[in-house]
Amino acid sequence: MSASVHFRTCNLCEAMCGVRIEVADGRITSIKGDSEDPFSRGHICPKAVALRDLHEDPDRLRHPMKRTASGWERVSWEDAFRDISHRLHSIQKEHGPNAVGAYLGNPNVHNLGAMMFGPQLLRALRTRNRFSATSVDQLPHQLAAHLMFGHQLLVPIPDIDRTRYMLMLGANPLASNGSLMTTPDVRARLRAIQERGGKVVVIDPRRTETAGIADQHVFVRPGTDALALFSLLHVVLEGNAHRMGRLAAFVDGLDTVLPLVRDFPPERTAPHTGIAPDVLRGIARDFLAADGAVCYGRVGVSTQPFGSLCQWLINVLNIVTGNLDREGGALFTLPAFDLIGGPRAFGVSPGSHGRWKSRVRGLPESSGELPVAALAEEILTPGEGRIRALITLAGNPVLSTPNGTQLDTALEQLDFMVSVDPYLNETTRHAHYILPPASLLERGHYDLVFHVLAVRNTAKYSPPVFPAGPDSRQDWEILLELQHRLKTLRKGRSVRAVLKYQALKRMGPERILDLGLRMGPYGSRFHPLKKHGLSLAKLRAAPHGIDLGPMKPSLPGRLRNRSKRIQLAPELLVADVARLRAAFPDDAAPREGELLLIGRRHLRDNNSWMHNVPGLVKGRPRCTLMVHPDDASRIGLADGANATIRSRVGEVTVPVAVTADVMPGVVSLPHGYGHQRPGIRQQVASAHAGASINDLTDDQALDVVSGNAAFSGTPVQVRPA
Ligand SMILES: Nc1nc2c(c(=O)[nH]1)N[C@H]1C(S)=C(S)[C@@H](COP(=O)(O)OP(=O)(O)OC[C@H]3O[C@@H](n4cnc5c(=O)[nH]c(N)nc54)[C@H](O)[C@@H]3O)O[C@H]1N2
Ligand SMILES: Nc1nc2c(c(=O)[nH]1)N[C@H]1C(S)=C(S)[C@@H](COP(=O)(O)OP(=O)(O)OC[C@H]3O[C@@H](n4cnc5c(=O)[nH]c(N)nc54)[C@H](O)[C@@H]3O)O[C@H]1N2
Ligand code: SF4
Ligand SMILES: [Mo]
């Protein structure tokens, strides 16, 4: 019997937990937390064991599949690549480059090879119709970072290990394990804030798991956080008393912010937010008094109608209280593979906004992509520039983007669709080809993105646990192959292109990673003899990972704009304040009887794609509508009975969970369900189908500035089914 032990970083969520995987005779016999991982210190969540289940899942596709009149057929990689590249090429030749669209889902960001080779395929496609999960998630963060600090990835990270006051809006890290704040064992780290005499405060329309361990929880009416943040700033800046300290020397725009915040005293916003003025003043006072305070807001405050204002004002609050770029506040990371400050070849673009607009609705481009809420209409609306073919890479937009039913219908209209994905699911069932990559344990891993977003600087490389089979291809190999063939068809065969392709194929992600590490801030190029002198070899020799220390102040040097000054009042965002005022006039009270829908995550879910893991879906059904007892009795809903929820775009029926944990007037349904659609091949998920919240959310509801979907606060009517 052959047995081996492998150390690895779990790549299922953003937390980067170290795992210890035991293998005997080619099968995983145990997955545990790696107690020697300097960052996660042995922590894992129940999803870690799914690394095995996903690898072994009989429903996971192992070969390229082609949809034919008589069903799905296995085809060879060569036939698939040849046909796909020819079809895409001829569609672009006839109808122009924009006739092919692309959608990139969330798992790309957790995939070293896809991160490195995805952008090259997109460039080869030359299409403006690029979409991704960014615009149903963190686009407002990136827009604020781009406009204020000069780079879309310069997202301030809460210094959770040293702060003494953590104010959280629209985040539930106890379920999500933290986001744009890579934090293994977030529960222990939050508890530690309390143990050192600090406070954790949660503002959320639901008393979440995180709110449950916080020192204070405050309900807020969905979609009104920008008002609450303005009011916090109003109190903090009363008498124009900013406390920027050393930041003052490189901050522009305070004079623009001051008159804005004067307009939003807590008394004025309270009727809309539902937050009592005293409560808000108390939070502002505590925030100011704490020796190291940080405000952090995540999905709940970015996927809402004023998402960009929220992310901007959160940064402003941290800045004007002197908590940006200081220990215990919010800091920027210095990752070993530096996507922000390193050589351009290894970097991510600083960001852009509004260089072009979507064809139908005129929504702005951000960093080269368009808001995915516009994808369906770009397929459905006739005319020049219509999307006729689509590539999806690791995405399930039918379940994850607003008005999923409409997109579901739109995908049927495509002339051609190809999906790079291990599953036949709600989205990929529309594809003409599905190209499944090797499993996640058959590839090497390094978190290019999440090290940028982590609460501590560390570096770790995970070698593959299993070799990939001869007939399997890595994500990056698929992307490189498609890119090369498309280019060759367009430009003809050139020696230079072939050499480049062969070189890239030989290098693969690992060699590029090695170069990036060497050129990086701890790299062997700069410190060949110094303590770190990082290279891939160095990481391979440290299987538990290397600790590079806590985040450190780095401003103004780390700013990426030309002025090297923080822009506190970007014009684009300041201009959006008028929309906020108009949406909440003084004389308008919230409508009686109106219910606002919000989402929810559970520790055992991961967006739409882990419901096929038996161990994660067992127990009571989780796709339930939480309703406050007052609303339930008014409507006549009993706990456990079915309710029908209707919005402007659709209707779904799910069981009700009556609970005082949601605010009156608010109902909550998790996302990522809705596996009842025919033609999918995920047996376990189909048996735990639930309903998709995105059959209710509205593709017309946006954070208008960024184009990000505004899921939170979708108006719905609920009745007994
Ligand atoms: N209403 C509502 N909607 C939401 C959200 C919400 O809070 N509320 N959250 C939004 C957020 S934050 C996000 S990030 C999006 C996610 O949106 P998506 O990324 O579109 O959806 P996922 O469910 O993550 O689907 C991931 C897909 O990738 C495939 N996959 C998994 N691993 C791999 C791999 O290694 N390689 C390849 N090629 N494919 C792989 C899976 O089979 C699945 O098809 O959903 C958004 N949608
Ligand atoms: N277990 C699990 N972990 C995950 C995921 C998963 O699906 N499951 N998805 C991963 C992904 S892709 C992401 S982006 C992260 C997201 O990580 P988080 O942002 O922590 O995600 P959520 O748990 O959805 O927390 C959002 C919170 O916002 C609240 N909320 C909704 N509307 C509003 C509002 O208008 N105002 C305020 N103040 N709050 C509001 C909701 O009640 C909820 O508690 O999680 C990641 N981790
Ligand atoms: S918290 Fe995230 S990274 Fe850690 S074990 Fe769970 S899924 Fe994996
Ligand atoms: Mo996300």
UniProtKB/TrEMBL annotation:
SUPFAM superfamilies: ADC-like, Formate dehydrogenase/DMSO reductase, domains 1-3. GO terms for biological process: cellular respiration. PROSITE patterns: 4FE4S_MOW_BIS_MGD (PS51669). It comes from Corallococcus coralloides (strain ATCC 25202 / DSM 2259 / NBRC 100086 / M2) (Myxococcus coralloides). InterPro entries: Asp_de-COase-like_dom_sf, MoPterin_dinucl-bd_dom, Mopterin_OxRdtase, Mopterin_OxRdtase_4Fe-4S_dom, Prok_molybdopt-oxidoreductase. Residues 3-59 form the 4Fe-4S Mo/W bis-MGD-type domain. The lineage of its organism: Bacteria, Pseudomonadati, Myxococcota, Myxococcia, Myxococcales. This is Molybdopterin-binding oxidoreductase. Keywords: 4Fe-4S, Iron, Iron-sulfur, Metal-binding, Oxidoreductase. Signal peptide: none annotated. Pfam families: Molybdop_Fe4S4, Molybdopterin, Molydop_binding. GO terms for cellular component: membrane. GO terms for molecular function: 4 iron, 4 sulfur cluster binding; metal ion binding; molybdopterin cofactor binding; oxidoreductase activity. It comes from the Bacteria.
